[in-house]
Amino acid sequence: MGRFQGLVGIILILGLAFLFSNNKRKINYRLVISGIILQVVIALLVFKVPPVIWFFQQVGKAMGKVEAFAHQGASFVYGGIGVQVPDGSIQNYGTVANGFVFAFNVTATIILVCALVAVFYHFGIMQRIVALIARAMNWVMRVSGAEALSNVASAFVGQVEAQVMIRPYLKGMTNSELLASMSGSLACIAGGILVVYANMGAQAGLDLAPKLITASLMAAPGALVISKIVFPETADSQTMGTVKLEVKSNYTNVIDAISHGAGDGFKIAMNVIAMLIGFIAVIALLNYSLLKIGHLFSPHFDLTLDYIFGNLFYPMAWSMGVPDSDVHSVATLLGQKLTVNEFVAFKSLTSKTVPILTDKGLLIVSIAICGFANFSSVGMQIGGIGEIAPERRADLAKLGLKALFCGTLASYLSATIAGILM
What we know:
422 residues, mainly alpha, CNT_C_dom
């Protein structure tokens, strides 16, 4: 029955994309089918092929090591602060290995990963990896080089940084290419944030690393599938059939790369902390207000945002193949991720504020909420890409909500396919 539900989900997701297509006659069904097949192949490799399973298990362990290395840096800065450890005692954060303070650990991890990415970028490693995968996706799906590069880059770096990699092409990209690029950045998650989520799961005893890596890999072709249904290509692309990425570093040397990477990581980390404080506080205010409103009708009617999300997103969660015991919880997390942000949704998941009872439910929801697709990210994209290519600002504004729609459906499609194959 679960697999049947998943098939319903795929039909529903593709049907919604088709319904909102601006040119149904021009949809490239070869691209759509090849993109879905590519997603299926990625999921099969990660979940069913032992050597690949082993490889991603090692990657997951490496993510844990990254958090441990980041803790070394944080220990120097925050040493002397008392934190509560699992046994309930208070110990020095700088000397205890398993101490976890969200602001300290998350900040340190993001800073370290951003510094490492900057080093890889300086030596051209990041560009070559992105170009290699982009060429493969370009060959399979027959999309343009700019689209392939941007979508693959989004699996490694932030949503605006991915557009920097295709800066020379932004001015001449078609609106269909621009939407595909924006959608990919919203469907994927940056490497630093992915490591943070994996370690948040590890703190809660949840093995999220393989699921999140799968989500990020599947998101690139998934975003292209959905965006090319919603906005099929009707113009001539400057980069059709070619994948060229300039291997050039903006840094003077390794020290400069680490300095800039750490600085950028700090800005991202502070933004994450500020958003969490602001959004969680606003959610508390809204829940308090909704609770009062609900009690006006009945003293037993506890109206909250979770109640609203759980009912509003229930049909989508069910159609994605989520087991019945988890449908309401998954629907709640889908609502939190889209309307608030993915960090709040992951915090609810890993803190078990919204409990997930089954392995299949955990797999589907982990992939579904692993992406930047929320309303605040749309504003960040329009502002960030608009600074890189100011002449495209009007187009970016027009495509913003479409990109949010495509990025969200792309994450749902990946999650549904993974659920069917589990």
